[in-house]
Design a protein that fits this description.
The chain has about 425 residues and is α+β, with helices and mostly antiparallel strands. The strands form five sheets. The chain has an eight-stranded mixed β-sheet with strand order 1-2-6-3-7-19-8-18, sandwiched between helices. Strands 10, 12, 14, 15 and 16 form a five-stranded antiparallel β-sheet that branches. A hairpin with a 2-residue loop joins strand 4 and strand 5. Helix 1 crosses helix 3, helix 3 crosses helix 9 and helix 7 crosses helix 9. The two termini are about 30 Å apart.
């Protein structure tokens, strides 16, 4: 009886492996046929970028594409967001796939024929607009995945929800947007999402490679505003003042001790940066007030709590020691949680990425102190967010133009792997018996 059981188990296992291999071959073939279309979409979006909450043309193209496939479409979610729902031929979980759509207020300098010439208004100023972070590639990849999975609809064991999200880089002043608003407007409901996957192209990772990290992979972000109030005086008689500029300098220096003395740097990184400082209007007048703006990055919820508490303490007590007062608003206008890859889910899905890209091309990465509002989705459902190579083969990652810069460049031959990876993650997750 035991031999019969083992023999039956072996036959089932071999059959399952064969079916998985056949499915991957089908995905690879379908993705290959879509590659040039995906690249064309990407180049079109790159040439016509739109700022956050203003992705009108982009959203219209996405919606028309999904509708042409017969996929159920919801538009106007979180202002310009688009959601597509593909119901498979068999019962199963709801898998969400997310792509962000917005560009940045950057004047493009790349020498490609599809470089952006778009101008727009941002915070009351005319600016250039550029896809300087690769969101154009994310949209094109997910449009390709939608078309690919539709061709396998009858075999899909579940439902796929395609989430095209606006304003990942932040909503315009006075507006709300991004992942947080999409969630509030029901992006993870009707039907209820069980798991979510997302990717981000990387200009300093070679084409053909994928990097990932379980747990905290991108930092939480809190912006802050610090107002220091002192007493004005003639610059020739500083003893008559309580100088808020000197106090601000001491605050800036003291804030750095939070990272160097309060954070366990062997476990996680952290950042406290003051990006602007404004005070006074003449060389010989000590002003009454100084305003500073900054950003705070941490890689765990515990570190974030500690940083916020210590920042408030350092700022107020440093000012108090000089006879001044200080107020800290943190977060001031935005907050993203840690982009936290569910550890069990990451472990479970790692073989899918390895079989798609080749084990040698899937690499564990260090955490980064950049932030991503995909983190809001991960607070609600288990999620996996990974990075896709977009740097030309043989290029030097130390000199390749970084994200958010005028020279940011993506080799769009890397998009094919993104299509295959998201499709295989979806199909492999649906095949798993225990979810």
């Amino acid at each position: 009886m035991r031999k019969l059981f083992l023999s039956s188990f072996l036959v089932i296992s071999l059959t399952s492996f064969a079916q998985n291999d056949a499915r991957r071959a089908k995905v690879a073939s379908a993705a290959g046929q879509l590659e040039q279309k995906v690249i064309a979409w990407r180049r079109d979006f790159h040439e016509h970028p739109e700022l956050g909450n203003n992705e009108i043309r982009t959203a219209d193209i996405i919606a028309k594409h999904l509708k042409s496939l017969g996929i159920e479409v919801k538009t106007g979610v979180a202002k310009t967001g688009v959601i597509g729902i593909l119901k498979g031929g068999k019962p199963g979980p709801v898998v969400a796939l997310r792509a962000d759509m917005d560009g940045l207020p950057v004047i493009e300098r790349t020498p490609v024929p599809f470089a952006s010439k778009v101008k727009a208004t941002y915070n009351g100023q005319e600016v250039g607009v550029m896809h300087a972070c690769g969101h154009d590639t994310h949209v094109a990849i997910l449009m390709g995945v939608a078309r690919l999975l539709l061709s396998m609809k009858n075999d899909l064991k579940g439902t796929v929800k395609f989430i095209f999200q606006p304003a990942e880089e932040g909503a315009p002043a006075g507006e709300t947007g991004g992942a947080e608003r999409m969630i509030k407007e029901g992006a993870l409901e009707n039907p209820t999402v069980n798991v979510i996957f997302g990717l981000h192209i990387n200009s300093q990772t070679e084409v053909g490679k994928i990097t990932y990290r379980p747990g905290g992979t991108m930092a939480s972000v809190n912006d802050m505003k610090i107002t220091v109030k002192g007493r004005s005086a003639h610059g020739a008689y500083p003893w008559s003042s309580i100088d808020p500029i000197v106090v601000s300098a001491q605050i800036i220096n003291n804030l750095q001790s939070i990272v160097s003395r309060n954070l366990n740097v062997t476990e996680n990184a952290g950042v406290v940066t003051i990006g602007t400082i404004h005070g006074g209007n003449r060389s010989n007048i000590i002003p009454e007030q100084v305003e500073m703006m900054g950003t705070v990055r941490t890689l765990s919820a515990a570190d974030e709590k500690m940083f916020v508490e210590r920042i408030k303490q350092v700022v107020t007590k440093t000012a108090e020691s000089a006879g001044a007062t200080a107020e800290v608003l943190i977060p001031y206008s935005n907050h993203y949680p840690v982009t936290f890859n569910n550890i069990a889910l990451t472990e479970k899905m790692l073989p899918s990425l390895q079989k798609t890209a080749g084990t040698e091309n899937v690499q564990l990465k260090a955490a980064v102190t950049g932030a991503e509002d995909f983190s809001f989705f991960q607070e609600k459902v288990p999620g996996l967010f990974f990075f896709l190579g977009g740097m030309p083969k043989g290029a030097n990652p130390l000199t390749a133009p970084s994200h958010h810069t005028p020279d940011f460049f993506i080799d769009d031959s890397g998009l094919l792997l993104g299509v295959k990876a998201l499709a295989n993650l979806t199909l492999d997750y649906m095949e798993m018996p225990a979810r």
